[in-house]
Amino acid sequence: MSSIYNNIPLPTIRRMPGYLRVLQDFQKEQEEWITTTNFSSHLSLKPIQIRKDMVYTGITGTPRLGFEVDKLTQAIRKMLGWDNPSEAVLIGAGALGSALLGYKGFAAHGLKIVAPFDSNDSIVGNNIHGLVVQPMEKLEDLIVRMGISIGIITVPDDSGQSIADRLIAAGIQGIWNFSSVKLKVPSYIMVQKEDIASGLAVLSVKMKNEILP
Amino acid sequence: MSSIYNNIPLPTIRRMPGYLRVLQDFQKEQEEWITTTNFSSHLSLKPIQIRKDMVYTGITGTPRLGFEVDKLTQAIRKMLGWDNPSEAVLIGAGALGSALLGYKGFAAHGLKIVAPFDSNDSIVGNNIHGLVVQPMEKLEDLIVRMGISIGIITVPDDSGQSIADRLIAAGIQGIWNFSSVKLKVPSYIMVQKEDIASGLAVLSVKMKNEILP
DNA sequence: TAGATTGTTAATCGATTAACAATC
DNA sequence: TAGATTGTTAATCGATTAACAATC
After folding, report:
1. What is the pTM of this model?
2. Interface mutation target, options A83, A152, A207, chain B, most CBs of B under 10 Å
3. Partners of B86 in the beta sheet?
């Protein structure tokens, strides 16, 4: 299933949420136009790079005025598929899982977590930020019944793979993996792995030799 | 302050924690040697890329045998400055802050969070994963007294900058920024910004057109 | 020994940056 | 109009990948 957005560089995609954030601020301020110079002062990016990124949104700007705030917002949201929200289950309602459940931003990011699951009986039934933690037995049924497309894995490393297997068997299409194991999945399953340690490594090295970008 | 590790590519640094994780597994299994092929099967990386990364550790391997597990582990930990831990304060003991406080992995990653702070009186005094939440008034004193070098910002966006200012005034050297604002800091302060939305954007686009790496 | 794996140089690939004409 | 900003092509930069001799 291809699309007009096919060959967008990964770094460009990663920068898009930042643009959206600035756009929202401008919308609040009732600004109609935004220039790459505007973006630049709110993000750590150069105007030239922003201009290049804008090409991928399909929106063309107007010299001197910049880009229309509303049009650009819609284009980016569509580009990311954030115009029609996906539903997700979250497995592992521990510290990290709870934090993600409490993150208000997802609503604006096209993601709706519909239910948290946990294997720990003492957590099951708890209400976390408005959602009741479900027992693992109910996982597959809920995924199938609601047609959930995304699974968020926030379980300890050793159970990550078995959870992934269950999610895939139940028909999930994408996995957001916060465990530190490399998941083995069929090629049609999309996995995005988050690694908090990578960021810490970069900060550590930056602080060690105070050079680097 | 330069070092032998000066021009390490950022992508290489980001991959280092992954290598460490595999090395730890090998250490547990009492393996003495590890090859790039071994690494490759536990990470989504090609042997050639791993070999290139290894050059930056300063460790030379032995054809057929690979690299010495212990030596390589030590070299990477030293390279990241994870051999002697840094101390950090965490500001904002909400959902995300609590999750970070509960993350056991930091100990092995050269980071020790010594105290969480929060401006909310109903949270102050709470015990989160063994640490008592401190009132904001005590922030500067504790940083100075303990010589804390890192500040972790997990507060809502609108107070991010003012917290950063206070941290810097108190003598912090690095900031791990989990808020979504771009912090204005002097050039000698190192900032590492984490953005959960970037990862979600990548997953969303991957799922939309099932291509991409 | 034979062959897997390393280290290194060169080639390729892709992203960022520069340059500049077009334009509002 | 003058000048800031866009769009686009070309140049640069940096990281990944390929190729292959060296080696255990």
Report:
1. 0.94
2. A207
3. B111
